[in-house]
Amino acid sequence: VVDGSIKELQGHMEHWDRRGLELYMAKHNHYSTLEAKEILQQEQNVNKTIDARFFGNAQQRRRWIKRHVYPKLPARWLFRFLWMYFLKLGFLDGMTGLRFCLFISSYELLISLKTVELKQEASHGC
Fold it and tell me: How many Å separate Cα 50 from the centre of its chain?
């Protein structure tokens, strides 16, 4: 809800986040741990808040793909890079696009590695 008038900006607005890469990486390290734990819970059928159906609505279909297709992809990090860089046209952003796609794919790699680690810890009773 906005009090007053709304206007369109003339020109371009540049977002310049000065917090640096270290904070960004720390945040993604934390979130990759949370995602790995969520994947483990989904595999154990602990968290079923959204019904996963291929022929359901968009959210149900996305959940079905996330549960049944995405985990079976080999080298998900590579798939994510190829998807973002080529199919989502990340290459059009030059070096910035390449860096961003590499960073996001490395985030996917962290999730995969942490999921394996959590499974190993669970099987050894750690």
Answer: 18
